[in-house]
Amino acid sequence: MAFIKKHSFKIAVLALCAAMGIYLLFTYVFVPQQPLDDLQAAPAFQMNDIDGNQVSLESTNGKARIVYFYFANCPDVCPPTTFLLSEVQDKLKEQNKLGNKAELISITFDPERDTPEAIRDFAQRLDADFEGWHFLRGSDWETTLDLAREFGVAVIKEEDGSFTHTNVITLVDQDGRIRKWINGSKEDLTADEIISDLNKLL
């Protein structure tokens, strides 16, 4: 008892420091992740990949998905964004989540010019491979543009055959619900940021 009285001030300071440490730990370190909003149902689709296999929204249910619309002749945003997604793919591989818990889906606006061979060349030039990443093409560009718009992508076909579009990366959860739209042209967007959002679904 005498010891406690003699050192009561020190004990109080230590207790205060410990309490403050615990507060800071749970406030800034063990911050619970905020769930992503449930925005809307993802539109259904069924297309062929570059090997002729049918892939649909329903067939990929049970996995979190990153959906991106592009075209191989895109002169600006599509190549760097696809390369960024290849970095996301690499990180998912490292975490042993690619293919079993999460998949990437890239859909071309331009199925007439984007043949399977053209898509394969585009993907491989940007360090993408096809393990857990579906590169899909529809039967015609009109149907694909309608699908893209339902996914929240603004797109028009120009007279020269190219496409002007917003650069949107869409996160779809395991139940086929859109949970986030990411601006693929955001200057400081990183693969880690996309992985962080995706992990909120996992």
Give me the strand/helix succession: HHEEEEHEHEHEEEEH
CATH architecture of the largest domain: 3-Layer(aba) Sandwich
Helix content: 25-40%
Question: Kindly state the mean pLDDT as a whole number?
Answer: 88
Task: Supply the key terms.
globular, two-stranded antiparallel ribbon, 2 domains
Brief account:
The chain starts with a helix and ends with a helix. By secondary structure, it is an alpha+beta fold.
Describe the secondary structure blueprint for this structure.
Layout (H helix, E strand, L loop, with lengths): L1 H5 L1 H22 L10 E2 L4 E4 L4 E3 L7 E7 L7 H17 L7 E7 L7 H10 L7 E5 L3 H10 L4 E3 L5 E3 L2 E5 L4 E7 L7 H11 L1
Parallel strand pairs: 4-5, 5-6
Antiparallel strand pairs: 1-10, 2-3, 2-6, 4-9, 7-8, 9-10
Helix pairs in contact: 3-6
What features would you describe in this structure?
The structure is a single chain. With 202 residues, this protein is of the alpha+beta class. It has 2 domains: 1-32; 40-201, Glutaredoxin, CATH 3.40.30. The protein contains 6 helices and 10 strands. The chain has helices spanning 2-6, 8-29, 78-94, 116-125, 141-150, 191-201, and strands at residues 40-41, 46-49, 54-56, 64-70, 102-108, 133-137, 155-157, 163-165, 168-172, 177-183. The strands form 2 sheets. Strands 1-10-9-4-5-6-2-3 form an 8-stranded mixed β-sheet, covered by helices on one side. Strands 7-8 form a two-stranded antiparallel ribbon.
